[in-house]
């Protein structure tokens, strides 16, 4: 007898009579909806297997019943159309959940699918369906007659069931008596007072499925998800029957819906917890059981967990419901699951990042399989497609939101991702087709009235829910609070140790920063107090291990951030110490409440409070907050990414880099996601998940046996990988059947496969790619290459590839066998100097990242700017691999462009990796030498490389990042993110600032008055917030708590500023502030305090701020003054010269010798998009001495503003002091800034430097200058009168009268002697010294740089010898100093180097080698001239800018035509004077001043001084003379005596000349000799390094050049 005969006889027997039947199955194309194959089995054993419908009709002739799995709504539709009425249809799909509702379900059914290991075999599916139907008929026969009658009555007349009911000769329907029949049959299992008649009338099929489920004895059994999709009312029917408490009472409701009985059953408690007599816990639990939405405010340790766990467990039993608990902390989830398990309750499951893939897979299986009544997840998990999928398969009866204050911008932990919860629930209800909303329960331990209102309003607005409030006013009575004032960090630690010793109990020590958890726990352990750390950044295994050790008493002290403790229920914690005070009273009360969970335990809560503790919180808040400017940067990045298409797939890190955020920024991905959530909330974007697909329709094997055989025989799979691949293909085969019930594309997402199989995503991707290669899975053109994005072309792609390839080869070949330690900038500078002129630091970072990821090198970024690189293999093999990749890349670019049909618009070319692999190998095989052969890994590496270097943009496939997001831009590119959009976050941060002040006030009160402090806390939580503020923060204090700074620090920083200065500093809105600052108006002070304001009060992070100056000395001064104002935070602020910043952008070490066009180059690179975004994405640009901008500098500013849409510019300068026109500076650029849209022009005219007489004369003199920006006269704020004297001479030689007056007058304070030329300055220096005056000269170094000094060169050389890492080790630094100072101890120039080193040490935290080089190369000799202690300081006017003196003597010879540049130079000289100004002149430029000026005329004829000093430059000596005398010259030091004879210089008593004057030098000397002067002494002024540019023969050899000083007299 055949198997078919056996089935037929069994079926006939089961049905009770003979009938003619056939089983039919059709294979229908997912996309074309055409029938591709048909299989059929007939009652007589005949079978059919052809794609012809007509022949099928003939085969079915004489058949009464056509059976199949999902035949009614799938196969029949495609096979029979309107002709399906010829046969009775019997569908095994719809019967299965009725006949087999209990776990384990029927072996042949999984969800809506028949379990099968064969693909595209309709005959096999017919066999499975026949076996299933036989079992269904057998189960029907076994049902009680009452149940049969109930099913027949409910299901009759529905096409899904009519055929089966007729086949089994079901009893006739009895609809009149049906309610009574159901009531009797299910008595005690449903509410006796349910309106069964109404349910029968409205939802008969849903009722049948519900009754089948109610009949089961295993509460974990569930109605399949596909049934719920088709009959969503089943869940509501279950609720009406089993979870709607009747008013009259019945046996079911009294036993199953009684919270007291269930409390005893699940938890063993006799009663609920009371709060000072309040039965709050019971009332809230009952409300949840009654289906109400609620907001419960329970104190920490108040039993909130039980309040939602009990209703969840009850509904898990009654309606097989799932309660979803959304909580922000993973530690809470684990703890609560473990606590329930310890009570024998295994219904709780968590899905979070602490789980490994296997545990995650098991958790998902438990939820989808019905094992879980409680699911704990974080809010971000709501975006997971896997989580959404399993929730849709379950009857979610309630959403519980823990830490609900996160909804409110007035709450202490507002989280933007919480605002997605309402949208998710709404979408979930829509997809489930629910007519009634799912209730929610919100819990928080502490909440202000405004927070309560915000939470209620949110759910009313998003879901239409009214939240019933359950709040306790009771306080914990077993906690004793104390605040201990500490004087220092060491004092704080000693007091902590004392407390731990005194109480000797389980203790929690709270700190503010992650790093401190490690440091403090280690120090306590070293001191004999075993402690462990806990913080949110620890590895999941470490967090779990440390938490368990504390909970199990293996360790008694845990040092933690606030990430620890939410929901942690350890009863015997007797001590909580806040080593750092909490950032809010809410957090403090919550964290302190972790002590004394056992009401019988008296516990202590201490705060160790120092004066600077609040400052630390303000700094931390500023570092972690997401400012409006950062959201604007992310919005700009999104606009850039979606410029040519509305959607983009990218990771958070990619967006951060595009936004210009520094990779080193803490929690960068979290901040990006917060910014994206804010943009989503504002309607700018819509977010999804971008997960790669594996298409089950591409399965090419016919069954699992064939798949296993081919995988086992494949050389691509190692033995240990075979089972993983088999599990994947088996899952894909089962996925094929999705389309049978849902008529949707048969696919499985990579993350879902990984989740359900307990594999990593990488393992799934790897196995799928290799199965594609073996042909087990069909290839899929799932990759898209955007070739012409942003104006690219094939030529540009090729040139970009070759540029990167050259740089990569350079890097690989310059890594020594051991390793290379170098800064990125130095590596780039080396590459540029060796001919790779287009190299940039950005390119090097890109390449090193790729080389590390792909295993070419090992990289250690052990400093922010430094890297250690080591090759992972030999140079030869690595270069060979590199060359192979480049060859593939060249081919890929050409091949992909060939696929593009058109050019001009950005075009996506769709292709697959296998397609490209086959094309490449075919191309290589055609070559004469056979070429190279590639595999899939080679192609993937090449594509990843092309994507990383920007040669093309790839999307789709498996090359995307797994944490990538799918972002759809909704608003047009022209929209800007505005302050109104930021209002909610702004309010949150404003509240955070106030909360820090409020908790600080609590600490101060607690030290003074315990009872007053407790009243303060009570009022905070019970009073209206405005009333609380007006009670405790009156008058000025109400304004103080708005600032992100303590009142004491605010007064220290801003208390002494003038109203105009504060006006400028307080301007937070102007796009561009242009300040025309008159002399002595406090320009530097304003800028320094504005920098402080930006950092402390205006949400500007240090990495977003850039200050540019025109000299290294100015940059150093600003850094030092800012450090004095705000401390070490100033180290992180970027304050640079224009040249230094531009060298940075080019990845070069700054050197003024190479600076001629560096600013223009940098501006051009910014415009072309060739600079790393994080180097130029700034929100604030501050410019000092902005009147000195040239066309290049202004072009740079314009480029930066174009790059940063919302960047603010603060430019301060004085157009009247623009005295550098000879190098291109022009104050009209300052004027242009003032005319930009959104600019504000401010004049600072209050002069705090000069007396009234000097100011009056300066105002008079300034009117001579044309084209001025300032219109308002400057006003002296100095009460002294002062004096201005102008003496006009008829003789051009005014040295003697100046020197005479200067030595004869009494002076109080500093004296400055200003000249127009260096020669005048040196003559006056010699003259004053002869007269016994302690005069010092601010030297200049015409023709050479400070870095060329022999002393400096020697120090740099010592560092080069000893330093092999980017950061200079302290030992090497000190050794280099000792050697240099010893060698040059007699040098007169050594103090210049010493002051240089001292300044560098003061302004840096870490001594980077490249930073020091740049510091030296940018410096001038005059920067380090020591004029301290001098009676008179002599300087040219140019070098006096920025300086001030009590008395100024100014020498201005005649004989020139006045122009604006000269007038401005004189104006600078005039305004250096604080009290008295003496002008000695031979011209009329200073005539006609105010009446207070003392004018005089001196007609005497004064001789030249007896002695003059000539400081010779490189132009005054013969450079070639020094080539053969290097060692002799280097043996000399600055200040050494020399002898001068006949145009030559000799070492004393030496016969060989070591220097010879040039023709220019001899001519200059001859002129002095013609005036009667002769050289009487000579000395070494400087020894400098020189590389003559016109010396072709030896142009790389540096020459040691001696620059002499000659003393001449008339002897």
Structural overview:
It is a single chain. The longest helix has 26 residues, at 983-1008. The chain is built from 64 helices and 52 strands. Helices cover 45% and strands 16% of the residues. With 1611 residues, it is α/β, with parallel strands linked by helices.
Give the key terms.
about 1600 residues; disordered N terminus; elongated; 52 strands; 7-stranded parallel sheet; alpha/beta
Write the layout of secondary structure elements.
Elements: H1 3-15, E1 21-28, E2 35-42, E3 47-49, H2 53-59, E4 65-68, H3 71-79, E5 88-91, H4 92-99, E6 109-110, E7 113-114, H5 122-142, H6 145-155, H7 159-167, H8 178-185, H9 196-202, H10 204-214, H11 225-230, H12 233-242, H13 251-256, H14 259-267, H15 280-289, E8 294-297, H16 304-318, E9 321-326, H17 330-342, E10 348-350, H18 357-369, E11 374-377, H19 385-392, E12 395-401, H20 420-432, E13 440-444, H21 449-463, E14 468-471, E15 479-485, H22 489-503, E16 507-510, H23 514-526, E17 531-534, H24 540-551, E18 557-560, E19 575-578, H25 585-592, E20 603-609, H26 613-624, H27 628-641, E21 647-650, H28 652-659, H29 668-681, E22 685-689, E23 693-695, H30 704-713, H31 719-735, H32 738-742, E24 747-749, H33 750-757, H34 761-774, E25 783-786, H35 794-813, E26 820-823, H36 824-833, H37 841-853, E27 857-860, E28 866-871, H38 875-899, E29 908-911, H39 913-925, H40 936-948, E30 953-956, E31 965-969, H41 983-1008, H42 1010-1022, H43 1025-1032, H44 1036-1040, H45 1047-1054, H46 1059-1066, E32 1072-1077, H47 1083-1097, E33 1105-1109, ...
Parallel strand pairs: 1-4, 4-5, 8-13, 8-14, 9-11, 9-12, 10-11, 12-13, 15-20, 16-18, 16-19, 17-18, 19-20, 32-36, 32-37, 33-34, 33-35, 35-36, 38-39, 40-45, 40-46, 41-43, 41-44, 42-43, 44-45
Antiparallel strand pairs: 1-2, 2-3, 6-7, 21-31, 22-31, 23-24, 25-29, 25-30, 26-28, 27-28, 47-52, 48-49, 48-51, 49-50, 51-52
Helix pairs in contact: 1-5, 4-5, 6-8, 6-10, 10-12, 14-16, 15-16, 18-33, 20-21, 26-41, 27-28, 27-29, 28-29, 30-31, 31-34, 33-34, 35-38, 38-40, 41-42, 46-47, 47-48, 48-59, 49-50, 50-52, 54-62, 55-56, 57-58
